[in-house]
Amino acid sequence: MATKYVYSFTEGNKDMKDLLGGKGANLAEMTNLGLPVPPGFTITTEACRAYLSAGHTPETLDVEVTSHLREVEQTMQKRLGDPSDPLLVSVRSGAKFSMPGMMETVLNIGLNDESVQGLAAQSGDERFAWDSYRRLIQMFGKTVQDIDGDLFANALQALQDRKEYKGDLDMTTDDLKELVVEYKQIVKDATGEDFPQDPRRQMDLAIEAVFRSWNTDRARIYRRRERIPNDLGTAVNICTMVFGNMGETSGTGVCFTRDPSTGHSGVYGDYLINAQGEDVVAGIRNTLSLADLERVDKKSYDELRGIMQKLETHYRDLCDIEFTIQQGKLWMLQTRVGKRTPAAAFRVAVQLVDERLITTDESVTRVTGDQLTSLLFPQFDKSASAKVLTRGMPASPGASVGEIVLNNEQAESRVAEGASVILVRRETNPDDLAGMVAAAGVLTARGGKTSHAAVVARGMGRCCVVGAEDLVVDEVAGTVYVKSQDKTLHAGDVIAIDGTTGEVFEGEVPVVDSPVMTYISHGLEAGLAASPDEDTQELVYAVDRILTHADAKRRLEVRANADNPEDAERSRSFGAQGVGLCRTEHMFLGDRRKLIEAVILAETEEEQQAAFDALMPLQKSDFVGIFSAMDGLPVTVRLIDPPLHEFLPDLTELSVELAVKEAKGEEVTEHEKRLLAAVKANHEQNPMLGLRGVRLGLKIPGLIKLQIRAIAEACVECKKQGKDPRPEIMVPLIGSIRELQIVRDEAEKIIADVEAESGVELALPIGNMIELPRAAVAAERIAAESDFFSFGTNDLTQTTWGFSRDDVEAAFFNDYFDYGIFGTSPFETIDWSGVGQLVEMGVERGRSTKPGLHCGVCGEHGGDPVSIHFFDAIGIDYVSCSPFRVPVARLEAGRAAISNESEHISFAPATAPVDLAAQVTELAAQMADLANEIRKQDK
Ligand code: ADP
Ligand code: MG
Ligand code: MG
Q1: Which domain-ending residue is among 202, 220, 240?
Q2: What digits encode the pLDDT tens for the residues 732-773?
Q3: Are residues 76 and 96 in the same domain?
Q4: Which domain holds residue 605?
Q5: Judgement on whether residues 827 and 861 belong to the same structural domain of the protein
Q6: Which residues have C-beta under 5 Å from ligand 2, the single-atom ion?
Q7: Which of 272, 368, 404, 759 is the most exposed place for a label (fewest CB within 10 A)?
Q8: Residue 29 belongs to a domain with what CATH number?
Q9: Are 734 and 776 in contact (CB under 8 A)?
């Protein structure tokens, strides 16, 4: 049987988004709910894929379209483009994921020189008919025939200027007829052909244009940014036209079933009298509010309110809606589960639970970790009156205040002097990194949300606003000129930027902690007390309810990566159930670097031992600090990991320094000579794969002996203080069971010694990291010597792919995104089909030797939402992430537990959920715009 390419609106439903696209699936759903949807049908995404691979439409598609069109014609008792009484249709794109503004819709298909007369006669409204015809040529020309849209817009504007009209409503029938002539000429000039008069040909060309638009540059760039797979294709909806431009009793509008920024239920939307759909968004005239619609057309308003309620009950979520009123008759043109701000997402989820529309489990799945993250950033104090200078695109959330600096040097020197600075650049490039690191925030005049500044700032968690095109940055003159205000700011002037809204303020704006953050770190009481208003209190309550439920449901434990007592305490207050990765290298840096240097340079055992002896009390007190902070909870201590040269001076620098000394005739000391020799000896071509991890511990056994003794003695000391220390000793970079055996034997001896010396019993688990493919493969053997596994997924990603992160990210990752080799960076989201398989194998093989072997993940993936779902699914026991990600991981682990029960999650990278963080910021921007619109209207 031939593939079915076309579905009538009566045949589909909301769960068929893959095939019918979001718009088509929901049009079908509304049709089946008995809502007034104009009749129509949907051409599947499969047809689009077939078209794109073959280069032409499948023949059976043409036939199917004909029969569905006939059906619509029969229902409507009109024929497409009939000269005396034409059926008109819209041709609308609609992919599985909404791609706003990417592929445009063509309205009024079926009009031509003859049927326009018929439409005029039938409607008794000549002006309306010609208005519809000129709209068709304009949209068709631009969207289907790729003619520069400005040509049409300019002709329209010129006509209005000529006649000194105030707007489109002033145009007469004759004006519109004149415009149609002009438009047709534009088409002829641009394409060399007349505007197509055959209605079916218009329709077919429009359908093909929608198919093709899937592959435009714009669409590809958008998909890449939003991580939408390239191979989905779009559906096409053919929908009977209804007319909002049929005079004063007609109009078109959009609305939400609840306020998408607060979540409160209420009337929320825009309506435009005597207009067609695209006019609302285009902002050609000021819109009315829905409350105004109630005044103008109570009957339609009441019906709309009823439908809003029905849709919300049916979808059990906030919906957004497009509707049109044709001479007092309401038509539904679109609905979908509406986008919302992060705060609204939490409030709505809890409201819906309270209204008994969804279960508490479901409420957890209605919010995301990324939404939670965005609620944790500090905010500007809303009560302060701040002057908005200009705005750009919100690229990385947060609120920061500081002096303007224009380059790295200024940034670093002012920060060294204790100032807070905002780095302002035309755009940034890798050379600006130092300035970005030093600055509290980054502001650029150019670039979008995927510009260098945006990507890097997000990576660093630095507040960032990009693309503030109102600004002219002159680094040489030291000025930032604000065009719209005709105002010049200078380096040193204070500004404030809001990375959630994109606003740029002049002068100091007070920054307050987010009440949600206060809640997370100090509990509900404190969070409520910190809330400035009822809405915020409601938000804090909502976050508490959802997070508490997620905690109750999750199987995964959440630990934090913390190297010092402060981080440990902070993460504990965020809900961490232990430290999953305590790195020890910092304990050898700073003043102590000299001691390690001494270890490396030592010529005799006594010399080396002296250095170890000096390090011992220092190490011990480090551990006492962190074990105390995590009293009663596990702390996984990783033995020294990085290559030795990281503790030594830089080879080139040292060589140059000594060469210069020699040249000047100055004396090079014996120590310096030995140092240079040691640096040379420890220099590695590829340090990532060199003398590091356990290899270092075997090469210089004294180092890890020292560490193990320090851990054991710290443990004794804590116990003597009445505490409950729970360290776990973790050996990095294990590849072979023998490596672990050697370390374990040594460690057990030392621990036994410490027990004997102190009379305190210690039970210290000794486990290892799995960060080499060999370790994952040999996990069955390694587990015999190991008390736990911790997957170091950063290194495992590097070693599995055979690339080093520092070298590849800048060098070719962008090309890999372009080629579609990566959907998301494998350092951000676990590459489930490669690296993830090794993790799964490691867990399975390890547990085949030791059933129930405790397995954790301590790479950055431990804080990544998608990866957390994967780890949950393969039976990992805990994830460990940076302290700030702990709340996110708690929530996502809860979501994973709940959704793994109810639905199958696919981890195919191609369909990996979109870049949530970017989506959230995007949304926040949209909502801010919307709020501004509303404010404007309120005035
Ligand atoms: P988008 O995906 O950009 O929302 P739509 O396909 O929804 O594009 O169409 C753009 C505009 O045209 C919307 O305002 C929509 O309501 C309106 N529209 C689409 N089809 C029809 C129709 N059959 N009759 C009247 N208006 C329509
Ligand atoms: Mg729409
Ligand atoms: Mg590692």
Answers
A1: 240
A2: 999 999 999 999 999 999 999 999 999 999 999 999 999 999
A3: yes
A4: 554-643+684-903
A5: yes
A6: 322, 334
A7: 759
A8: 3.30.1490.20
A9: no
Tens of pLDDT along 50-105?
999 999 999 999 999 999 999 999 999 999 999 999 999 999 999 998 775 556 78
Q: Which ligand 1 atom minimizes the distance to the CA of 243?
A: 25
Q: Which residue numbers are catalytic?
A: 452, 858
Are 35 and 133 in a shared domain? yes
In sequence order, the β-bridge partners of residue 109 are 89
Give the residue whose CA is nearest to atom 14 of ligand 1.
277
Please say if the pLDDT value at position 453 is more than 90.
Answer: no
Assign residue 730 the CATH number of its domain.
3.20.20.60
Confidence of residue 286 (pLDDT cuts 50, 70, 90): confident
Asked, for residue 30, whether it belongs to a domain, the answer is yes
Q: Report whether residue 322 contacts ligand 1, using a CB cutoff of 6 Å.
A: yes
3-state secondary structure 266-306: EEEEEEEECCCCHHHHHCCCCCEEHHHHHHHCHHHHHHHHH
Confirm whether 663 is domain-assigned. no
| Ligand 1 pocket mutation, candidates 107, 243, 246, 255, criterion most atoms within 8 A of CB | 107
Ligand lying closest to the C-alpha of residue 858: 3
375: in domain: no
Number of domains in the chain: 4
Q: Do residues 706 and 807 share a domain?
A: yes
Q: If we measure between CA atoms, which residue out of 603, 584, 705 comes closest to residue 646?
A: 584
One-letter amino acid at 203 equals M
Residues 6+ apart with CB under 8 A from 245: 128, 131, 132, 274, 275, 276
Ligand nearest to the CA of 239: 1
Last residue of a domain, one of 338, 367, 395: 338
Q: Tell the residue number behind the tokens 């919302």, with chain if given.
A: 340
CA–centroid distance, 304 to ligand 1, in Å, is: 17
> Do 822 and 841 belong together in one domain?
yes
Measured CA distances, 721 to 309, 334, 631, 715, 761 (Å): 62, 67, 11, 10, 14
- If you measure from the C-alpha of residue 292 to the centroid of ligand 1, how many angstroms do you get, rounded to a whole number? 22
Q: What is the separation, in whole angstroms, between the first and last Cα of the chain?
A: 61
Ligand 1 atom closest to Cα of residue 40: 23
CB-count burial class (<10 Å; 0-12, 13-18, 19+) for 646 = middle
**Do residues 399 and 380 touch, judged by C-beta distance below 8 A?**
yes
**Pocket flag, ligand 1, residue 26 (CB < 6 Å):** no
Indicate which CATH number applies to the domain containing 495.
3.50.30.10
- Ligand 1 atom closest to Cα of residue 93: 6
493 lines ligand 1 (CB under 6 A): no
Q: 272 with 317, same domain? A: yes
Q: Ligand 1 in contact with 320 (CB < 6 A)?
A: no
Same structural domain for residues 161 and 281?
A: no
Burial class of residue 812, CB neighbours in 10 A (0-12, 13-18, 19+): middle
Structure tokens at 769: 């990291």
Return the residue whose CA atom lies nearest to atom 20 of ligand 1.
90
The reply to whether 535 falls in a domain is: no
Task: Looking at the structure, tell me whether residues 316 and 203 fall in a common domain.
Answer: no
